[in-house]
Prior knowledge:
Blueprint: H1 5-18, E1 24-25, H2 37-45, H3 59-70, E2 81-84, H4 87-98, E3 102-106, H5 110-118, E4 123-127, H6 138-150, E5 157-161, H7 173-186, E6 189-193, H8 210-213, E7 218-223, E8 236-239, H9 244-260, H10 266-275, H11 280-306, E9 319-320, H12 328-332, H13 339-350, E10 352-353, E11 355-356, E12 369-372, H14 381-389, H15 397-411
Amino acid sequence: MTVSATLAINQEIARRRAAGHDTIPLGFGEASIPIHPELTRRLGVYAELGGYGPVAGIPALLDAAAGYWSRRGVPTRADQVVAGPGSKPLLYAVLQALGGPVALPRPSWVSYAAQNALLNQESVLIDTLPGQGGVPDPRALEVEAVRRRRAGAPLSCVLVTMPDNPTGTVAAPAVVRELCAVAQRQDLMVISDEIYLDLVHDAATSVLTPSELVPDLTITTTGLSKSLALGGWRIGVARFPDTDRGALLQQAVTTAASEIWSTPAHPVQAVAAWAFTEPVELRDHLAHSRRLHGAVAWAAAEVFRAAGASVPQPAAGFYLYPDFTGSRAQLARLGIRTSGDLAAHLLDKLGIATLPGSAFGDVPERLTLRIATPMLYGPDETRRWQALRAEDPTALPWLAESLATVGKAVSGML
Length: 414
């Protein structure tokens, strides 16, 4: 295995820039909004908390996370929650506790299949329906679940991403309901990665999660890396079902935590405990973030559509997923036959850093890209604050110039 594609592209962008190569960064999914000053102030206050604390997390954080889910229609007690240094290691520990095979949507975030590979567990990729990223086609999932059960190798669980990375879409409630019905019929646990749930662009977008429909079958993870741009602080939480099975899985994850990370950083937990209560200061900050992410993602989608790509409309987060398969003949003249070829051409010839759909489990022959827009917000805090506060961030000179450069370069390929 190699370094995760999302982290590798970030390192490559830094290398190219250090070498003097202009590079437009559309590869790495860092939220890139300024950290709210009250978060940094509180971190300084709590910096003296050097003790380890409980493995599962400090009581204040577990209480706050339980309240966060309860306010979203998923009644939760503090003793159902485990905190970790980011949702990523929590997901790894959950996958380890459940075992495989694991059904994943295709495409899906790069680390799901990679973590299963590290655990010597099988990932079963199941296509999503058009515009329904993050949730495997429920009918195809059931067919596969039945087939494997008859063969004596049943699926253990299905993992969904609500909303989705890499496509930026939100699966419709009807699709989520059907998936949850399949999970009940086929006795599948559901892992629901809801790290982008607070970044839905339009309040009118209907979002229904497995946590609300089948809480006794669902393990839910979230964190503050995307909503509040605290990726470097490393804090996440997981909610376990209030069942005997859920308690056993929670104990397995806590045991793994005790041997791997011991406990999340104590000062960060203390700040996160405040953040998960959703104080008014952070609600306003988050509202501005949603506006910024949505405006730039929508503008970028239009840029790629104008260049000939098919792009599902992004509805949450800061990703889009253009598909150039319809331009296969034109791109073949440039030696582009796979999504890897396409991403390499954009980077090497045009200075645009993206990720190929194949990095997310997509069929290589589909000429898809995962585009992440936040690193366009600005190279420094001053410009990022301007972008966050702007009524129309796409009109800011540096953002408008980057989008225009991308549009001209991509259109020039065809």
